[in-house]
Amino acid sequence: MRKNYDTSSLPEHCYAVLPSSGQLIEVRRGEMGYYPCAYSTGDRAYNQVLANYFNAHEGVTKAQAAAMLTGSMFGWNVPAADPSRYDLDGEPVRLGVRKALPRSPQYLYEQAKLLREEYVPGTKVVLDEAVIDPCYDAPAGLAGIVQSVDDAGQLLCQWENGLSFRLVPGTDHFHKEAVQELELPDEEEADLEL
Fold first, then answer.
1. What torsion do the CA atoms of 113, 115, 116, 118 make, to the nearest 10 degrees?
2. Interval 151-160 mean pLDDT
3. Strand order in the sheet with 24-28
4. What is the pLDDT of the chain when averaged over all its residues?
5. Are the C-beta atoms of residues 14 and 68 closer than 8 Å to each other?
6. pLDDT of residue 100
7. pLDDT the model gives residue 3
8. 15 FRET partner, CA 20 to 30 A, in 24, 35, 36, 104?
9. Which of helix, strand or coil describes residue 57?
10. Beta strands in the chain (DSSP E)
């Protein structure tokens, strides 16, 4: 059968996590199956960290690793063995679904810096839409006070119902409560001018 991808876009080998057992494995281009890796641990999540580390060290992208794993399991002529079918995180590209581009640490730092200027501690915010979470429910209209803004640009707030949780700008829908300026009586203004 004719291959659906350019073989040169795949590395000679890469590391992956076996979906069934979570074992760290080595996959070789063009070969069916896999080779057990001596560095495998009993922890699936840690094995994924190791696979990402080893692959990055060898210049293998997550898209290439995902295509290699699929090729070793289902054959090298299937469309899913093409790295162009995956995004930067190694997730399959879905038609009609746009994923946000990853942001550099410098961009996140600058964004958090701007948010800290806009949402200083003590700023009052109000939810425009309910925030649904397995641990709590926060209805629309709930008001809270910003405590701080973390390095990821999330607003840690203390809410009027006693909850304390973070808002994610761009994901959660909320607005900043307008602050009314206090007007001083004319007598006090005259005293201030002296």
1. 130
2. 88
3. 13-17, 24-28, 35-36
4. 83
5. yes
6. 60
7. 46
8. 104
9. helix
10. 13-17, 24-28, 35-36, 124-127, 131-132, 137-138, 143-149, 155-159, 164-167, 174-176
Contact 157, 123 (CB under 8 A): no
- Give the H/E segment covering residue 178: none
Determine how many CB atoms are found less than 10 A away from the CB of residue 108: 14
150 within 8 A of 166, measured Cβ to Cβ: yes
Contacts by residues 83-92 (CB-CB < 8 Å, ≥ 24 positions apart): 83/5, 83/9, 83/10, 84/5, 84/9, 86/62, 87/63, 88/61, 88/62, 88/63, 89/62, 90/61, 90/62, 90/63, 90/65, 90/66, 91/66, 92/66
Which one has a higher pLDDT value, 159 or 133?
159
- CA neighbor of 61 nearest in space, from 6, 14, 29: 14
Is residue 169 scored above 60 in pLDDT?
Answer: yes
pLDDT band at 185 (very low <50, low <70, confident <90, very high): low
CA 116 – CA 152 distance, rounded (Å): 11
pTM comes to 0.50
